[in-house]
Structure formats: C-alpha cells, structure tokens
From TrEMBL:
InterPro entries: ARM-like (IPR011989), ARM-type_fold (IPR016024), ELMO_ARM (IPR024574), ELMO_dom (IPR006816), ELMO_domain-containing (IPR050868), PH-like_dom_sf (IPR011993), PH_domain (IPR001849). GO terms for molecular function: SH3 domain binding. Residues 307-480 form the ELMO domain. It comes from Callaeas wilsoni (North Island kokako). Residues 694-715 are annotated as: Disordered. PANTHER family: ENGULFMENT AND CELL MOTILITY, ENGULFMENT AND CELL MOTILITY PROTEIN 3. GO terms for biological process: actin filament organization; apoptotic process; cell motility; phagocytosis. It comes from the Eukaryota. The gene is Elmo3. Involved in cytoskeletal rearrangements required for phagocytosis of apoptotic cells and cell motility. Acts in association with DOCK1 and CRK. Was initially proposed to be required in complex with DOCK1 to activate Rac Rho small GTPases. May enhance the guanine nucleotide exchange factor (GEF) activity of DOCK1. Keywords: Apoptosis, Phagocytosis, SH3-binding. Residues 696-705 have a biased composition (Pro residues). This is ELMO3 protein. Coiled coil: none annotated.
Length: 715
C-alpha cells in the first residue's frame, strides 16, 4: 500500500552514527521531528541542530521548503544555520590564518543557502566581509574565498548593491586593474562589478570611470577562457546600462581598437569551442552595434538641412561627374534645374524634382541615404556602372538605384532586427559581422549589386519592382541561414543563388506541396500519421533521457547558475541538480533532486509560469516568456521552473513532458517533424509511381461476370 500523501520515507545520517530510516510526517512541526531524531541518538539541545540534504547543494530543511522532500531522500543532521552562522562569524575574525581561511571557505560554500545567508547577514556578517576586502591585508586563497562568499550572499538580494562603500568598490576595481593578481580573484572581481553595474546609474558611472575599456580589452586577450568570459560579461553590462550617446562613444572607441577583428580571430575561431554564454554576449554585442543605426533609420530627411542636401547632391555629382563639370554660366537656372531633375530620375528617384521626398519615409529614413553615399564613395566604379548601365536601358527596363536602395535598406533592417531590443537568451550571431568594421554598409554594397544582377536575370520592368525585391530578400535570408564566416563567402554564395536557382527551389517546394495534396496521398498520410507520431513521441522521450543544461535567470542578472535535468531510462523519474560550468552530460547518479513522473500534475508555459509572473513585463522579457515552462507536482504550489536555452529545446521538453502526462504534443516543432517524416515516408512509398500521375478518384471497380462457373484446365 502506498504511504499517505503527507508521509515521506527518508534516511537521516550523522557522522559516527548508524543512519535512521524514518517516515517523515509533513504535518508534524519540524522542531518536533528534530527532537525525535536527536532523542534516537541521545543528543541534547535539539534546537541546535538542523536537517540538510546530504547531496548536491546541501540545502537546509525549513518549514517553507520541507514539501520538496521526496521519498528516498537522504538527509543529514548538522549544526543549525544560526549556530553555524555564529561560529563562522567569529571564525572569519580569527587571528589564526588557518582558522580564518577554513571559515571563509566554509562560508563561501554555505552562503548559497538562503536560510544560512539570512542568519549570517542578520549578524552584520557582510560588514566583516567588507572589512577584510577594504583592509586589503589578505590575498590569494583567503581573498578568493572572501569574494566568493560575498558574491553568494549578495545573490539572495537581502542587501542592496547601492549600500556598498566607495572604498570597497575601488578595492574590487583595483583587483581588476592590477596585473600581478591571481586569475580566480580577477574573475570574481569582474563578476561582482558586472552584477553591480545594472543596479544604479551611479554605480555604472563609477565602474565605467574606474575600469577603462583598455583594461577590459586586455582581459579579453587573456588565454584564460573564464577570465575572457567575465571581462566580456562586464563589457556587455556597461554597454547595456549606458545612454545612447555613451554607448555610441564606447562602440566608436572599441572600433578604433579593432575589437571585432580580435573577437573574430581569437574567440570565434579559437581552438576552444564557443560556450553558450559567450555566444550570447557576442549576439548582444552585434545587436548593440547594429542598433546604433536605429536613430538614422527612424529619422526622415530634412529638406532644409544643408548637410543632407549636400549628401544627396554628391550622389548625382559622382554618377554624372563629366556632365556636372559644365561651367555654371553655360545654362540658365531653369535649364540647370531641369538637368538636375533628369539626372535624379536616372538615379532612380521617384520624385526627381524633389528627391528629398523619397527619403521622408522612416524607416529606413536617412540610413538609406547613408548607404547610398557609402556605396558611391567606397565603390565608385560599381556605383557608376550601376547607374550608367541602367540609364542607358529602355525606360521600362531600367533598375531604379535610389528606389532599390531605399527598399533594400528596409529589408536589411528587418532581417537584422535593427531597432529591436536585445533578447535575454538568444545566441544567434553572424560570425562575418565580427570580420568587418562597416558591416551593415558593406553588406548593403554587396546586396545592391545583387539587386541589379537579379533585375537583369528576371528581365524586370518597373511593374516588377516588388517581385524583384521579394526574390532579393529570399536570396539574402537563404544565404544568411548558411552562417557564412566572412562577407566574401556571403558574396560568393548569394551571387551563386541566382534567379533560376530560386525558381528551382520554389518549384521543388511547390511540386512537393502539390504531390502531397492529391486525395489518395492525403489518405495515405492519415494512415501513416499514428505510426510516425509515435516515432516523434519516442524521440522526445529519448531527448529527455539524454537531458539538457538549463540556466537560472534572475531579475537582476541575465544568468545565474547552471543546472541539469534528465529523465530516467525507465521514464518514471525526473532527476535534476546544480552543475558546474563546463559539465556537459552529468551521470544521473550525480543529480540529487528527483520528481516521480506519477507526482506530476500539469505543465505550465509562458505567462502561466510562476517564475515569469515575478518578472517585469517589458519587451526585453518577451523571449523569456517564449522559453519558460513549469512542472506542477504534488500539490499546485510546488513547481519546477525552467527557462529553455533555445526555442528548439522548449519544444522538445514541453512535448516530452506532455507525453509523460498522457497529453497531446502541442509545440510547432511536432508538426514540423511529423511533416518531415511523412514526406520521407511518402517519397519512399511512391518511388514506384514516379512520373505517373495519380488520379484524384480511384478507378471504377468492374462489374462482376454474369456467371462464375468457369475454370482453367491445364493441358
């Protein structure tokens, strides 16, 4: 008979004693449970003891978290958090170096526990931590334990970062700026500053002033991957906390220092594989850099701005240089105005008498003008060839340079998500972005020539403008999806994907769609679907058995700690637990926490999850909502909360959990995978019918013969 819901069978250990196997009554006060355990071992003063998990993070058991205890859990009787906090508070003030070091080491470990942290902070323990750092007498291992303990205590958000003294902050800064400091201390110091920067503008200004970009670049060039990662994390925190003007100045300085080329060579193409966190920081750096174009993109042209009018005139003068060299007195004002209008028409402006009107639309606004000017100045031969080649064509077949440039700029802004806030979890960056200083402008130069090439291949007229731009968008997106490592490679691939190739791809996709819409094929699809859907279910469960590395995300900081979750091979228990950075696939035995599948009640996603309700509802958290899911187990208050690393993982996990709950798989990935499997299976089944048209209706069944009295006699 299964035990009642409020009873869990557990083991309790104590050093030097035989373990106790007890049935824990969840309705019984914890103090009474402790008294019974202590009495069994003849221990007085039960109030000085507490229970904690024997494995994993060794969290203390309290009235608030006791419901998380599962059948089969192993607990340990240990000193109570208040006693331990008092002992360590005294220990870190000891004059004995060994005692002080051991106390700080223990403190760094126990500070992860919220109950202990509360007890230690209530004793003004942080003040002692401040003193150790500010006095600066300790170094090496002792200092590393101190900084680690401080970081863990601050993680619980009991104390505001704004309460830190300037002396303390400058001491942390000094560890970042000094050369002869242990790498572990520099990593912890960088991490502390990274946490500090987003909390207030005052702290941002202080850190920005004290830690120069040059110093961060020095750390980025270190061979130590963790030091490199922490330096990048602080750089990103500074960029995200800066005002638009400060951010632009910082990015200009980083450009002068060739940070892109360094990242391209030493981080992206490093011998070490790129971690998820570094990939995210590179994505943010790319997004911040591209978003510098947002202001120009959203600014319409001012026809009264002399500077903007000069830029516009420079386009005409560069294209029709010889014609513009005619002395000013040769033509009347009216004749010159007419000549200018004619030249602007040849340039492809819709409103040739007042071309500024074409640039009033925002987006793309002035960004389109910037791109055209960059193209004319940096590739003058290609620019002149584009304009002159089209101005000599018949009117109906000329490719309008200006109109194409304006539309292309808008397309590139949409593809590269310019003007959109950075995602909190995305890792998708373009390696070629870091191989080029003026990435957006150079990409435009390649793509505008692609427009001209595609226009000729399509033998397009002005009426076909939208069709041509649609093909160009497809060429760009298909090529970018291949993740070319350089702009040269992008140029080669996008030019190889000509109009005839696009037509072939479209035709293949269309034929495939038509084939699968025939009535007999649809009937066969329906017949095959249950079998293949079961295959998808098995794949989802297999993925859960392999497990996934998740990151905890707090409101103050993008990523906290790593944890791993996987399903047992018999599909009966979910195992999970915290893991260290760099651990890829921990064995199931090393994951101390567990949830029996039988105890799982429901799956929550998106806004329904408790951990998303705690967050702000800003745009920057939209991606977190799309990746959040929770498992409700036992009673509804208890949830295991997830933030999937990618949308792909979100789909696989939510599908797998729905399978375990006996529900339908609902993610968009289910339909995609099912379609792929059905397509493959149908192609295999229909191989013998290649080039044979399948009728919509089955052939008629012939009438039966008038009599069935016939037989065949062998001779």
């Amino acid at each position: 008979m299964p035990p009642p819901k409020d009873v869990v069978k557990i083991a309790i250990q104590m050093v030097g004693a035989i373990p106790q196997l007890i049935e824990l009554q969840q309705t019984k006060p914890l103090a009474s449970v402790l008294k019974d355990v202590c009495d069994a071992w003849s221990l007085p003063n039960a109030e000085r003891y507490a229970l904690q998990y024997a494995d994993g993070r060794q969290t203390y058991i309290t009235e608030s978290n006791r419901r998380d205890i599962k059948n089969g859990s192993i607990l340990r009787l240990t000193t109570s958090p208040d006693q331990e906090a008092e002992r360590l508070y005294i220990g870190i003030q000891s004059k004995n170096v060994d005692v002080k070091t051991d106390s700080l080491k223990k403190l760094a470990s126990l500070s992860q526990d919220v109950t202990f942290a509360q007890e230690f902070i209530s004793r003004n323990g942080l003040k002692q931590i401040y003193s150790i750092v500010e006095e600066g007498n300790d170094a090496g291992e002792m200092l590393a334990h101190t900084l680690k303990a401080f970081t863990e205590l601050m993680e619980h958000d009991f104390v505001s970062w704004e309460n830190l003294s300037t002396v303390f902050i400058k001491k942390i800064v000094s560890y970042v700026n000094m050369n002869a400091v242990d790498a572990s201390i520099q990593q912890l110091s960088l991490s502390i500053l990274e946490n500090m920067v987003p909390t207030s503008h005052v702290l941002f200004e202080l850190v920005k002033k004290e830690v120069t970009l040059d110093r961060l670049l020095t750390h980025l060039q270190a061979t130590n991957a963790q030091l490199q990662l922490k330096a990048m994390a602080l750089l990103i925190a500074l960029l995200l906390s800066a005002t638009d003007t400060e951010r632009r100045d910082m990015m200009d300085y980083l450009r002068e220092k060739n940070i892109r080329q360094f990242i391209h060579k030493n981080i992206i193409h490093s011998s070490e594989p790129l971690g998820d966190e570094m990939a995210h920081y590179l994505y943010v750096l790319q997004s911040v850099s591209l978003n510098l174009c947002e202001h120009r993109m959203k600014t319409s042209m001012d026809p009264y701005s002399q500077e903007q009018r000069d830029l516009l005139q420079s386009l005409r003068q560069t294209a029709f240089e010889l014609e513009s060299e005619v002395p000013a007195g040769t033509f009347s004002t009216e004749r010159r105005r007419s000549l200018c209008a004619k030249e602007f028409r040849k340039l492809g402006f819709m409103n040739n008498s007042n071309p500024a009107e074409d640039l009033r639309r925002a987006p793309p606004g002035l960004l389109a003008l910037d791109n055209m000017v960059y193209f004319s100045r940096n590739t003058p031969n290609a620019y002149s060839r584009f304009v002159l080649e089209n101005s000599s064509r018949e009117d109906r077949h000329e490719c309008p340079f200006a109109r194409s440039s304006i539309q292309l700029t808008l397309i590139l802004c949409e593809i590269l998500h310019i003007g959109e806030p950075c995602s909190e979890t995305a890792q998708a960056f373009y390696p070629m972005f870091f191989g080029q200083d003026h990435f957006f402008e150079e990409l435009f130069c390649i793509c505008i020539q692609l427009v001209n090439k595609t226009w000729k291949e399509m033998r397009a007229t002005q009426e076909d403008f939208d069709k041509v731009m649609q093909v160009v968008r497809e060429q760009i997106t298909r090529t970018l999806s291949l993740k070319p490592t350089s702009l040269e490679l992008f140029k080669t691939r996008v030019n190889a994907l000509n109009y005839s190739e696009i037509l072939k791809l479209r035709q293949t996709e269309r034929l495939h769609q038509e084939e699968t819409l025939a009535v007999p094929v649809l009937e066969l699809r329906e017949k095959l679907k249950p079998e293949l859907l079961e295959l998808v279910r098995q794949q989802r469960l297999l993925h859960l058995c392999e497990g996934t590395l998740f990151r905890k995300i707090s409101s103050r900081r993008r990523q906290d700690k790593l944890w791993y979750c996987r399903l047992s091979p018999n599909h009966k228990v979910l195992h999970y637990g915290d893991v260290e950075e760099g651990v890829q696939s921990p064995p199931i035995e090393s994951l101390p926490e567990k949830i029996p599948v039988a105890d799982m009640k429901m799956l929550l996603v998106g806004k329904e999850c408790p951990h998303t309700k705690e967050k702000s509802s800003g745009k920057q958290n939209k991606d977190v909502l799309e990746l959040a899911f929770s498992i409700v187990h036992d009673v509804e208050e208890y949830c295991l909360n997830f933030i999937a690393p990618t949308r792909y993982e979100f789909c696989l996990w939510t599908d797998g959990l729905n399978v375990l709950l006996g529900k339908e798989m609902t993610s968009e990935r289910t339909q995609t995978d099912l379609d792929v499997l059905l397509s493959m299976e149908l192609k295999l089944r229909l191989l013998d019918l290649e080039n044979i048209s399948i009728p919509d209706d089955p052939p008629p069944i012939p009438k039966p013969p008038s009599n069935l009295n016939f037989s065949h006699q062998e001779q």
